[in-house]
Amino acid sequence: MRIRRFDRRFRGGPWCGDAVTSSLSDFIFWGVGLISEPLSALFQFVPGMSALTWGLFYFAGPLAAVIVRKPGAALFAELIAGVVEAFLGSHWGGLGTILPGLIQGLGSELVFLAVAYKTWNLAVTTLSGAAAGLAGMAVSWVMDYQGYAAGFIIVSFVCSIVSGAIIAGALMWLLLRMIARTGALASLASGQDVSSRA
After folding, report:
1. Were 85 and a residue from 31, 97, 150, 152 both cysteine, which residue would form a disulfide, CB within 3.0 to 4.6 Å?
2. For the chain, which domains are there?
3. Which UniProt keywords are present, listed alphabetically (predicted)?
């Protein structure tokens, strides 16, 4: 496990990258939103298992954080993603995208805060995705699932966390490494870190 010193100075470049990551994520969110019901139907044999697809909505925060490596990157990315998704015309409405984005980003951000923004590896990124999944289901429970059976809620929480860990966490770490190997992140610590391990 490699520990890197963390640069807390503000630089425009990384934050522009964060905003770009958020905006590109939005088009994926928007597309996933259009097919979310058909996707969910594949898992209806066990109520609550449709949450296994929800990691597709959680990845902006962990991905932005491991690329930018700045405090607040995950929270900022998810918030921007929620705002842009609302402007794109999400069928969940403005509050239905912005508030979940904020809460999911907070969940993801807290994991990087817990390691003082010093440890950047597969395990931490996976935990960040899982935390986004926990936060995402928590806000969905409050906003959408009041009165549902306890079994449905428990299965949804477990599946949301697992989906977040795998899709938004582990896969985003692998995606970071793939992007870094192209040289696109050469000016950032994340890209230099991957290059030094190659």
Report:
1. 97
2. 12-190 (1.10.1760)
3. Membrane, Transmembrane, Transmembrane helix
